[in-house]
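Student: Hello, beginner here. Can you help me understand the protein record under this note? Any guidance would be welcome.
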Amino acid sequence: MELMTVTNPTDPFPSRTRALAAEVARLRGWHGNDPARAGDLADALTALTAHRLMGHAYAEAAADAQEALALAAKAVAAAGPLGPYTPVPDAARLATAATHLAVLQSAMGLDEAAGRTLEAALTLQAEVRPLTEALSARTRTWQLLVRARAALSSGDGAGANALADAAASRLDRAEAESYLPMDVQRLLAVVRWAAGLPDQAVLHGLGALEEHQALIAGRLDGRPSDALVERLLEPVAAYAEVADQLVQRGDADLAVVVRRRLLALVEPHAPTLVPAARAGLAATLAAVGRPEEAGLLDVEIVPLHLPGVPSSVSWEAADETDPAGRDRFLAVMNELAGRAHGWWAEAAQQEAVARESAHADLDRRAAERRVAAERAAQQAELDRAAAERAAAEEAEANRLAEQERQRQEQADRIAAKRARRERKAAYEQEAERREIERLAAQRSDKRRSE
């Protein structure tokens, strides 16, 4: 699979984030003394939130998105009752802030809540007629993405596909330095799969991987910061999604290529993601009938549980899809389809090489096991002989020790007998000495008395 290679070692995202955050800090200081600047601060917060959303920095964007929505609502309320005469800039600011919050909710899997949040913005756009045209292409694309996900979660597959088509046609390619093009391709892959169109789903899934590869090209070289690694690898779940779809579609070699690409991507930079990536590759290899190669990864192989492909769903193009946008969308689809043949051929070549390498590795391991078994048998024989020698030596040592014990016991008995005799003799000598001394004392006393 030949993914796009773009040399772009620089990463403008952090510097742009710092610049926008500095502007927010500056305006927040002014806003504290001048509530009339609430709109300016809301604009700065909205710009910072949009930038973070484009980089999938969802956690950092949450607080600012809520504050921007509150300030935008204040600015609209200060201009009078909400309705057709609401100033377009104020209404656009509010609709944009609501869209950002809906994107955050959708990113957290709260698609129904996101749909309700977005509904308020869409109601406002319906009342303020020029408003939709005043919104950026990015904001309108996000609205379509949120609506498509909400439709899919509610079971409206046809509506989800129509809205996803509209999002693809609205996408501004100037957003290529963000995750938005990849998000659109991932959404198309999901809704096409849900519509029972696995061929198209796989094409869009591979297109999403191309977008990701183009975005990260060169930026993980050297020693990237932890924050950069976390941001650039945030969407790697897309690789697993595409691989699973390929397995169900029967494209075993390409599924394994995608899994290998995922492992190669996380292995140098994200150790915490490596076990899951290795397990996913092993499960895919096992699922496509290559359990021996899966065993080389030394992980527990958990069977893949993949849902079936739904029945086919048809739909009409959404009203938001203008003819020019539809033409751009079809051109992208044709380009993806044209490149697919190259992906399949290269995937087969890559997997043939990988399979040959794996089989060589299996043969090497089998030879190593045979040599190890022979060495183990030789060592076992040496150990048995050594054990026999040790047992004989221990028996001889025990015999000699028993002899020595008996000799020592005999010596102890003789010594004890001698000691008793010596004590008796000493006692008799002491008694005799005391008797002599007594007699001598009697004679002395007798002489003194005379």
The chain has one domain: 13-356. The mean pLDDT is 83. The radius of gyration is 43 Å. The domain at 13-356 is CATH 1.25.40.10 (Serine Threonine Protein Phosphatase 5, Tetratricopeptide repeat).
